[in-house]
Design brief:
Rossmann fold, globular, 2 domains, 6-stranded parallel beta sheet, 12 helices, 7-stranded mixed beta sheet, alpha/beta
Amino acid sequence: MKTRAAVAVAAGKPLEIMEVDLEGPREGEVLVEIKATGICHTDEFTLSGADPEGLFPAILGHEGAGVVVDVGKGVTSLKKGDHVIPLYTPECRQCPSCLSRKTNLCTAIRATQGQGLMPDGSSRFSIGKDKIFHYMGCSTFSNFTVLPEIALAKVNPDAPFDKICYIGCGVTTGIGAVINTAKVEQGATAVVFGLGGIGLNVIQGLKLAGADMIIGVDLNNDKKAWGERFGMTHFVNPKEIDGDVVPYLVNMTKRGADQIGGADYTFDCTGSTKVMRQALEASHRGWGKSVVIGVAGAGQEISTRPFQLVTGRTWMGTAFGGARGRTDVPKIVDWYMDGKIQIDPMITHTLKLEDINKGFDLMHEGKSIRSVVVY
């Protein structure tokens, strides 16, 4: 069949809107009509050429929502007409990682997914004889796409596609980091570094978990109102304080008779290795947990004095918010439908496929929280 798609033809070049060929689903695969897709920083990272694993030509996009159009042989959990969210972190429920119940990092299709291919080692997208690579196993910048059954979450059919597509990455990553990875408890103090789409969802997760003091840290004062909208209680712009931000935050979080400061939980949503260190060192001695969410550039390393860890702090990371896609994503959609979390305010721009490059411009200019393309 033919499908319209925004194709990344080469690193650093704008996406090109074109009609491409899409082969139907093979065994264990599902054909999905994508109704809406978010534009994420990870897409931009690959398109820019900074991603050492980036492949071209490719159809990017990994934050989508749509409807099942057809299923291949052997598919049992999905049928035509089901509403779904593609999962760049699948859940096969059979590999050692899934069976361990200790991680959400399913390994069933990892090797081929990283090569831009379907599990059988081939691509479903092409133009003539030339194949086009898949992206993160999703390729939601195409109106139609094919995914493995294990990489699709079946969700509430009443949920609006142009909002729940954001659950395919940003919402789940932020809220999941709080609930699944850090396991924040009621009354906790927390610091969130970077108030973009991920950071705002971390704040949302902290409010949901019952955190008392939620400090947002950002260099852009416009983010103060955004943070407060989702539950932030204090805002710090490091450019507007004297000296280092770490002792400032430690001082802010002092409590109890001994007046030892530091947050119970800190979250890096920036991808800056300098900020990752600040986040760790702003956490409480003895029990502080610092979660790395932001993705640093290739080859970068993090450092701190071992004393920071010896004195009881934990440095941890999270991918897709520790969420098991097929199990947890439908629950997060239900939270949205029940009004427990907000998504609508974060969708700041809605675009047509023809205007997808404008979405990347808005991201670069800091004018959008999330731009969504509606087919």
